[in-house]
From TrEMBL:
Subunit details: Homodimer.
Pfam families referenced in this protein's UniProt entry, alphabetically: Iso_dh (PF00180)
Function description: Catalyzes the oxidation of 3-carboxy-2-hydroxy-4-methylpentanoate (3-isopropylmalate) to 3-carboxy-4-methyl-2-oxopentanoate. The product decarboxylates to 4-methyl-2 oxopentanoate.
Binding site for substrate: R91, R101, R129, D223
Associated pathway: Amino-acid biosynthesis; L-leucine biosynthesis; L-leucine from 3-methyl-2-oxobutanoate: step 3/4
Enzyme category, top tier: oxidoreductase
GO MF, one example: NAD binding
Name of the protein in question: 3-isopropylmalate dehydrogenase
InterPro entries documented for this protein: IsoCit/isopropylmalate_DH_CS (IPR019818), IsoPropMal-DH-like_dom (IPR024084), Isopropylmalate_DH (IPR004429)
Amino acid sequence: MKKIAVLPGDGIGPEIVAEAVKVLNALELEFDMEAAPVGGAAYESHGHPLPESTLKLAQEADAILFGAVGDWKYDKLERALRPEQAILGLRKHLGLFANFRPAICYEQLTHASSLKPELIAGLDILIIRELTGDIYFGQPRGRRTAPDGHFPGAEEAFDTMRYSRPEIERIAHIAFQAARKRSQRVTSVDKSNVLETFQLWKDVVTEVGQQYPDVALDHMYVDNAAMQLVRAPKKFDVVVTGNMFGDILSDEAAMLTGSIGMLPSASLNERGQGLYEPSHGSAPDIAGQGIANPLATILSAAMMLRFSLDQPQAADRIESAVQHVLAQGLRTADIHSDGTTKVGTREMGDAVVAAITTKTITKG
Ligand code: NAD
């Protein structure tokens, strides 16, 4: 039986994960789901944001359903004990190198974007971000007294941007394979005009691309990509890029849709094991109020069914059910507008469950 590690975390994490679990249960599939603390909650109970027992559960599971971690009250803790370290630790221990962030604009929510509706209506792009390399992990890094540079003897800090050929090859393959299931287009984003690391990136992505003659590849500098994403986002389909550029561009793309509470994500390793979480954080400002939007987490559960649990039809059922509740006019506060019905976290989850268990939806 497939095993799902359920890690709700902090802030709104437990509220939104409870709804996703409810939706998974409504599918009536055979899963073994086991919950464990992570982030600030785990620091409180175990003295560490990623306790051994939680890590072990995650390693043994086929997939991890993750809520969110973090709260400003932990900002003064030493870095290794901060809630966010749990995510970095899971990525590292499980080798989750490929991050999928779809940015989809639902027809009913086009008004939620700050862009003109015609620019984003029907938007459906997929940002694939390399997640375990680049300047976030490159060594050496640190603080020191500057040995040279503009201010020798001054305090300085430095990080190292690096990518190896195999790291680039494997994320490039992921992007081309994903494009084959979509509209056969990949845009590789780099900064090869300035950075050696990204010249190698561009060279390797181009080489890998030759193995996918059916997929069109183009290259774009990251500064231009940031502009084009707000100028003509629908020109993109699959975007593949490094860790830091992907971090920034995927948030930008998320905001195109105007509703971070709607956007799922997946982080996969070479074995197809994955961590599935909403693109947003723990939203401590609204935690405990029952008003958070659970749809990003519910849609993350759909990605989990598709990518790690071999249940694409069940994923379709969840996605159809989400479309259905939006068409019914149900909205949590973050996406609410005149003429729609405002609902809380739990009511939204219940509505998705109701849509799933309705025959017309399950057949469709
Ligand atoms: P955030 O994404 O938590 O919140 C940003 C804004 O969006 C807030 O106003 C929040 O209320 C709103 N929001 C987010 N999710 C929502 C939802 N589902 N429904 C309705 N509104 C929603 O980002 P932040 O405020 O910058 O960070 C808060 C904490 O989350 C920090 O401790 C940060 O480190 C952490 N964080 C965690 C993750 C993660 O667990 N993967 C990611 C980003 C931030």
